[in-house]
Amino acid sequence: MSVGAPSATNAQPSLPTLGETSDLTTSAERRLGDRIIRELYRDPDYLDDPVIADYVQGIWQPLMAAAKARGELSPELDERFAWELLLGRDRTVNAFALPGGYLGVHLGLIGVVTTRDELASVLAHELSHVTQRHISRLVAQQSKQTPLLLGALILGALAASKNPGATQALVVGGQALAVHNQLSFSRDMEREADRVGYGLMAPAGFAPQGFVSMFDKLQQANRLNDNGSWPYLRSHPLTTERMADMQSRIPPGTTVAAPGPFTLEHAMIAARARVLSNPGVDILRQWIAEPQGTGFASQPAHRRAAALYAAALGNSQLRDVAGARAAAKKLDTLAQADGRAARRLARLLSAEIELAAGDAAAALAAMPEDNRHRPELMLRTQALLKAGRAGEGTEALQTWVTDHPMDASAWQLLASMRQAQGQGLRAIRAEAEAHAARYDYAAAVDRFKAGQDLARRSGSAAVDHIEASIIDTRLRAMESLLREQATER
Questions:
Q1: In terms of domains, do 297 and 158 share one?
Q2: Domain edge (last residue) among 368, 387, 406
């Protein structure tokens, strides 16, 4: 299974792969995943936060690279699957893999893990469910169902994991329980995902002990928590065999260190996740008051960073600009003594606070001009738009969507930039591309047709012929995809 032999200290017995055969083709699984994900994009809990998404991608991409290098991710799956991560605003601790290479991560999970390694262990586990074709095999068990019903059943199971009462909106009668049972991974599949995921950790640059500390965290939650806030434990139940297997994979004589290292960067991201999960005004006020508490100065740096970040962002959400600025200033001072990653997050937060306060010039001054990274690009472009300087940010954003055509939020922001510049046809095309990136082909067709109408009304002399030609071509492509959707139902 692996490209290149492991070192003697990390060598593991060669075990058979469960997911080598499947009754569901990769193309069919991808189409099913696209249908499910289109509905999840419409979920009010769906969140595109560039800062958290960038951090999670920084963990996800090395794991993907390690899976390719070790031969766990085949070239066919790499090419055909989406390999896309979605963030959910939900406060519950959960992550899930879906057909076609889609993975979902709740902010609740990001908010409770204490290190990058723990988060990496969950992502590696979910990635391995996909690469080993576990999802395909489970979906194939439902082969007598139509693809549309399959999608509804999976969406119903996801709804049940968040709110059992909401399931009836998607699934009738006892089908939700049935599909939840049938789409729950077997013990053998769970152990294989552990084993394969564990093997990805070190090559991807993460401490494999993250698996052990994450299991300890889940075990403690399993004993102490019965209020349903850890749905990950329902879909991925812990067993003594799984825990013993992870412990046994640590080389003999190796001392398992306490969870760590506790970085300011991760502490700040976890704090952001907790705030953006909408905990309520009372909880926000508690977090805002924490930095003023006795003994705060004696706490470890990562805890102070998390508290100051939550206080600054919480104050901003409650429209206390002075309080937000004061906490952000203290955070920036603390981050200056740490690495570049912490300083970057502190500066982004300061710029975000200024933009929310309506001071676009201060937001631009708070952050460097950086068009290589998505958080900086998106925030800077929003500030330029608010400052009435749309022309300065359009080229960089256009380059970004050319390289990342499935970035719906970037397309939508580009549409606003084009509209502000009086480029109506290009604005409509960008809106259409945003819908296409979220697989809403009907809405994309509608906007592309609106672009055609605008081009006809503008007259030959005034129309942007290149843009009009692109719209014609993209409209035909969207109409074809819309017909394919209709036949699949």
A1: no
A2: 387
Last-in-domain residue among 207, 222, 248: 248
Taking only the tens place, the pLDDT of each residue in 182-202 is 446 777 888 899 999 999 999
Distance of CA 102 to the CA centre of its chain: 10
Q: Quick one: tokens of 306?
A: 């998390």
> If you write DSSP's letter for every residue of 374-441 in order, what string do you get?
HHHHHHHHHHHHHTT-HHHHHHHHHHHHHH-TT-HHHHHHHHHHHHHTT-HHHHHHHHHHHHHHTT-H
Domain for residue 34, yes or no? yes
Q: For residue 169, how many other CB atoms are within 10 A of its CB?
A: 11
Distance from C-alpha of 234 to C-alpha of 226, rounded to nearest angstrom: 11
In this prediction, what percent of the chain has a pLDDT beyond 90? 61
Say yes or no: 356 and 403 in one domain.
no
Angle at 312 between CA 306 and CA 314, to 5 degrees: 95
Q: What is the pTM of this model?
A: 0.86
For the stretch 1-57, pLDDT in tens is 222 323 333 333 333 344 444 467 899 889 888 988 998 899 889 999 999 999 999
Contact 396, 381 (CB under 8 A): yes
How far is residue 192's CA from residue 190's CA, in Å, rounded to a whole number? 5
Q: Name the token pair of 216.
A: 């300890």
Tens-place pLDDT, residues 297-323: 999 999 999 999 999 999 999 999 999
Q: Are residues 409 and 489 both part of a single domain? A: yes
Give the structural domain span for 298: 262-387
Residues 243 and 306 in one domain: no
**pLDDT for the residue numbered 221:** 73
> Is 230 in the same domain as 275?
no
Are both 232 and 113 inside the same structural domain? yes
Do 355 and 471 reside in the same domain of the chain?
Answer: no
